[in-house]
Hints:
The protein is α+β, with helices and mostly antiparallel strands. The protein is built from 16 helices and 14 strands.
Amino acid sequence: MSHLNVRSFAEDANAEPGVYSASNGVAMPHAYEAQRVGTEGPLLLQDFHLVDLLSHFDRERIPERVVHAKGGGAHGTYRTTHPIPDLCFAPLFAEKTECPITVRFSTVGGESGSPDCARDPRGFSVKFRTKQGNMDWVYNNTPIFFLRDPAKFPHFIHTQKRNPQTNLTHGDDSTQFWDYMGQNPESVHQFLYLMGPRGIPATWRHMQGYSGHTFKFVNKEGKWKYCQIHILSQQGTQNLTNDEAAEKSPDEHQKDLFSAIERGEYPKWDVKYQIMTPSEAIDAGVNVNDLTKTWPRDKFPLQPLGEIKLDQNVANYFAEIEQVAFNPAHLVPGLEPSNDPVLQSRLFSYPDTHRHRIGVNYQQLPVNQPNPEHKHVNFQRDGGMAFYNQGPRPNYISSLAPPKFLQRTVDLDAVHGDYEGNAISFLSGVSEEDFVQPRELWRKVFSEEDRQNTIKNISGHMSTCTDKGILANAIAVWHQVDADLAAAIAEPLGLKGKYKTDLREAVFNGSHNFLGRDVGTNGLKTKGPTVANNIDKVKDAVYGARKPDGVASVNGHAANHSTQNVAANGH
Length: 571
C-alpha cells in the first residue's frame, strides 16, 4: 500500500542523478561557481545563480512548532481488526479495512534542537488517509494533561519554555515550572506522571498513545457513546531513568525508529477504546470533559479495534515530517468531538498555527493532501503557494459548474445536543477530587523503587528554583497527594515543615479553591462538575438547561466529580 497519496518522495531518492540547475530549471556548470570581475574583483549582481542560491538559503527555515517542535516519524498502515459497526458508522471502523498513515512523535516543551530523552510528555499523532478524507489523531503518551481550562494553555506552555529574562531552561532555573504547579493544583496528576517512572520513554517504539480527550462514536442510527482511544505498543513499554537518559544521544529516539525500520523491525501498536454512555458517566461519577482525569478501567474496560504498523521511513524529513500538519478537527463522520473545552480550543488552534507556520495552503502539500474516493472541490482558492487552484471552476457556488453535495445519512448535529443557557465566564475549581487519582497512582501503582526515584526526580528538578516561597507552595500541593511524599521532597531542599499542610484557605491565581467546601451547595447541581464562576449566582445556567427531549444530564453529557471508583483508574 502506498503510504502517500501523491508522487512518492522516495522516487527522487532512488532516481538516476539529475542535472544541476538553477531554480528556473536552467542547467548550471557548477554549484560552487560565482561571477565576479576577474579573480580579485567584486561580485556581479547579475549572477542569478548565486543570488538565487543565497536568497533561498536565507528563507530555508519556517517557524518551529510552538509546542512539539522536536520530533520525528514514519509512514505505515492502519488496519481495523475488530470492526464496530454498532458503535461507529465510519467505514474505516465499521469494516475490516485499512488505510495509509503518517505518524509523528515528539516532545512537548523542547525546542527543535532539544534532546529526545528529556523528561517531558510526548506527542503521538497519526494522519489517516481514508476514503472519506483525512482524519488526524493528535494524541499524547499520557492519558491526562496539566489543565482542563483552555485559557491556561498559553500560560502553562510559557512556563515550560525558557525564562524570558535569563533565557535559561529548567536545567538552570525551574522557578516558573514549579510556580505554575503550585498555583494550579489540578495539574498535579500530570506532574506526578511526568516525574514518575514513565516520564522518559526509552524509545518511541516502546511508548503508548492516548486520546486524553473524550470523543463520540456515532452509529448509523445516530446513536452515540463517549469514547477514549488508547494506542498500546506491541513492543511493550520501556522507560529511562535520569541517569540512563543522560547517556543517550540527543537524537536517540529518531535514530532508534529509523534504524529499526531500516532493519525490517517494523513497530506495531494495538488500537483499543473505552466507551461510556451519558447515564453511565453520571452513575460512575466521571466528568468526561476533564482532561486531568482518567476513566476507571474496571468499569470501562479496553476493547480491541485495530493495529498500527510503521514500515516506511521518510525520504525527506522536512517535506514529510516538518511540514506534516495534524489537526484534531480533522475527523470523518462517525467520530465526533465532545464538549471538552480544551479539545474545543484545539479544534481552532491547530489549523490556525499551521496557516501561520506553513501557509494558508498547507493542505496542498503532498504529505497533507487528502485523497478521498470522491473528487473533492471547495471554494478555498488563491493565497500563498496555491499549487492546485482547482482550475477554471468558479470560486463561488455557480450554476455554471455547480459542485455535488453528498447528503448525510446520519444527523450529526443532533449528536452535539440541544442547549439553552446564559453566557458565563467559566473557570474550573480545585477540589479534593483532583488529588484522588494521583494519590492512587502514587500509593497503589508505583513500586517502592518507582517512588524513591520519583522523589529524587522531583527534588532534583526543584533544586534549580531559588524562590523558597514557590517551592513551599508546590510542596503543599504534593502534600495534598501524600504527606510522606511531600516530606521526602522537602527534606533535601531544606523545607521540612516549612510548607502548608492545609490548602482550604489558599488563594490560587489560576483556579477557584473548593477545598473544604460542599460543592453540592452554592447553587450547583449535586451531580454537576465542581466548576463554575460566580457560583452563588449562576445555578443551572452554568451548564445550560437541556431540553426535555434530550438526555437529562449535565451539559448533555455526564459530569460528576466523585471520589468513588478510582481503584482501577486507568493508570
